[in-house]
TrEMBL record:
Recorded topology in the membrane: Multi-pass membrane protein
Matches recorded under Pfam families: AI-2E_transport
Lineage: Bacteria, Pseudomonadati, Pseudomonadota, Betaproteobacteria, Burkholderiales
Keyword Transit peptide listed: no
Sequence intervals crossing the membrane: 12-44, 56-81, 153-172, 213-232, 238-261, 268-287, 307-338
Taxonomic superkingdom: Bacteria
Protein name: AI-2E family transporter
InterPro entries: AI-2E-like (IPR002549)
Cell compartments where the protein resides: Membrane
Length: 353
């Protein structure tokens, strides 16, 4: 059977796509820092271009933007410092009375079922205080021992932490040249439609990023104000951290929730604190999922609120955590592709008969 020219081209492109997919799958562990750096470069290169157009040398523009991004990431982590500084001594002071209350509540309850439990509270308290009083050398020794047991993981983390900024620097420096080279590989007859499609995707993804920043700022304000109204001493750092960390779905929210629960228990020592945290964070999830994300992100990228909710659930079901992370950017690209397919379909012989 003789294949037509179109069929041969289709098979060639399909084979190339499969080969690239297989190569990416095989090199996935090595590509991780490069993919992270590429995503960051895509987000940051407009700022570099803007500074370069204003006369700042490109090297200085790249260094300025990268240092600014690193400072922003470090600032987010440093929000945890006042939380830990206040909560660790409070935790040390609260553990003995908590153990007393646990024994007073648990022992009579278990006795109803014929289970006799005699906790050696004095030894337990002494052990906990000793652990909390350990010097930094003991913690460092434990960390080094852990690093020896999982040396490859530790080296991988350190390597990625060093490699990502280096790769990011080179990508930001050569971004325009890299894009031009990629465009030069597109066959001339396909260059105009492909370039137009990529430009439209770039515009939609830019809208997505701006919308996501607005969601993060709105949630940071909400959580900080709500926790302050509930009279949490650590309302500002915990609230701001939770709001900004929601950029990483589930993980950011879960870490903020854990910090709020711990802060509430240590400050108030009652179940009412858990009730306040559950109310504030439950309302925050409803606000994010059904109001802020659909309105500030979904409408900017051409998705209805219902489509945003469906995309998050569908990608999460198919790809887990990574799926939730890429659900809206991938949906934004899919919206652009769907628009072009609709135009092509309406102009085709199939539709027009």
């Amino acid at each position: 059977m003789t294949l037509s020219s179109t069929q041969r081209q289709t098979l060639t492109w399909t084979a190339l796509a499969l080969a690239v997919a297989l190569l990416l799958w095989l090199l996935a562990p090595v590509l991780t820092p490069f993919l992270v750096a590429a995503v960051l470069a895509y987000m940051l290169h407009p700022m570099v271009e803007r500074l370069a157009r204003r006369g700042l040398p490109r090297v200085l523009a790249v260094l300025f933007v990268e240092v600014l991004a690193l400072l922003a990431a470090m600032s987010l982590l440093l929000l945890l410092v006042p939380v830990l500084v206040k909560e660790i001594p409070a935790l040390k002071a609260q553990i003995p009375p908590l153990l007393d209350r646990l024994d007073a509540t648990l022992s009579p309850w278990l006795a109803q079922f014929g289970i006799q439990v005699n906790l050696d509270l004095a030894s337990l308290k002494a052990w906990v205080v000793q652990v909390m009083d350990d010097k930094g050398e003991d913690w460092l020794a434990a960390a080094l021992n852990s690093a020896r047991l999982g040396g490859s993981v530790m080296l991988s983390l350190i390597g990625n932490a060093v490699l990502v900024p280096v790769v990011l620097y080179y990508l930001l420096s050569d971004w325009s040249a890299l894009v031009a080279r990629a465009q030069s590989l597109i066959p001339p007859r396909m260059r105009a439609p492909v370039t137009g499609f990529m430009d439209e995707c770039d515009a939609v993804l830019g809208q997505y990023l701006r919308g996501q920043v607005l969601v993060m700022v709105a949630l940071a304000v909400y959580y900080a104000v709500a926790l302050a109204v509930a009279r949490f001493d650590l309302a500002l750092p915990v609230g701001v951290f939770t709001g900004l960390a929601v950029f990483v779905p589930y993980v950011g929210f879960g870490l903020g929730l854990a910090l709020a629960v711990l802060a509430g228990l240590l400050q108030f020592g009652t179940l009412a604190a858990l009730g306040w945290v559950a109310l504030i964070y439950g309302a925050g999830q409803v606000l994010e999922s059904f109001v802020l994300t659909p309105r500030l992100v979904g409408e900017r990228i051409g998705l209805s609120p219902l489509a945003v909710i469906f995309a998050l659930m569908a990608f999460g079901q198919l790809f887990g955590f990574v799926g939730v992370l890429v659900a809206l950017p991938a949906s934004a690209v899919a919206v652009v592709a769907a628009r072009r397919l609709r135009v092509a379909y309406l102009a085709s012989e199939i539709y027009r008969g």
